[in-house]
Amino acid sequence: MRSTLLPAVAVLAVAGCSAPSPDPGAATTRSPQASATVPATGDPALTATRISFTASDAYVVVHLEDNPTSRDLLTRLPLTLEFEEFSGREKISYLTELLTTDGSPGSAPRDGTLVYYKPWGNLGFYYNATGGHDDNLITLGTVESGMDRLDRLEQGPVTVIPQP
Questions:
Q1: Phi, psi at 67, each rounded to 5°
Q2: Which domain holds residue 61?
Q3: DSSP labels for 24-91?
């Protein structure tokens, strides 16, 4: 009797746990409780692994980490930002809305990384990093090209878009 009952229970358990497939045309939604982002499937911007930062004569390409914070950043693109020098160590820009950070690990500052600093809600490009691990510092990605042009990001509005 037990052998006949187990397959039926397993089928019911699996059937009860399955969620409906997302609608490919569904829009991105935000959960107010967790401030998490649920990406719409099929949107090429949300599947990008690279983004670019372009100013008048600067072009910086970043390869993104796969974490909830970098995925949330992708949902906000395109963006226009202003960058400024900060403490002789990084170029920073403030976002108008905080990014989700649940599930994204902290990190240590490293030259050539794009980071998100939770307490201030800002992006930063490190070029003269110091210090140890910080739970509030989330690595979003690594600069693939344009590291030598970071100082030019301060010269005007910077457009941030996904790359194929």
A1: -145, 165
A2: 44-163
A3: TTPPPEEETTTTEEEPPTT-GGGG-SEEEEEETTEEEEEEEPSSHHHHHHHHT-SEEE--EEETTTEE
Total number of residues shown for the chain = 164
Residue 145 within any structural domain of the chain = yes
Q: Is 142 a domain residue?
A: yes
Tell me if 4 is assigned to some domain: no
pTM of the predicted model, to two decimals?
0.72
Q: What is the pLDDT of residues 7-40, one digit of tens each?
A: 333 333 333 333 333 333 333 333 322 333 334 4
For the chain, give percent helix, strand, coil, nearest 5: 25, 35, 45
What's the burial of 147, exposed, middle or buried (CB within 10 Å: 0-12/13-18/19+)? middle
DSSP letter at 136 equals: T
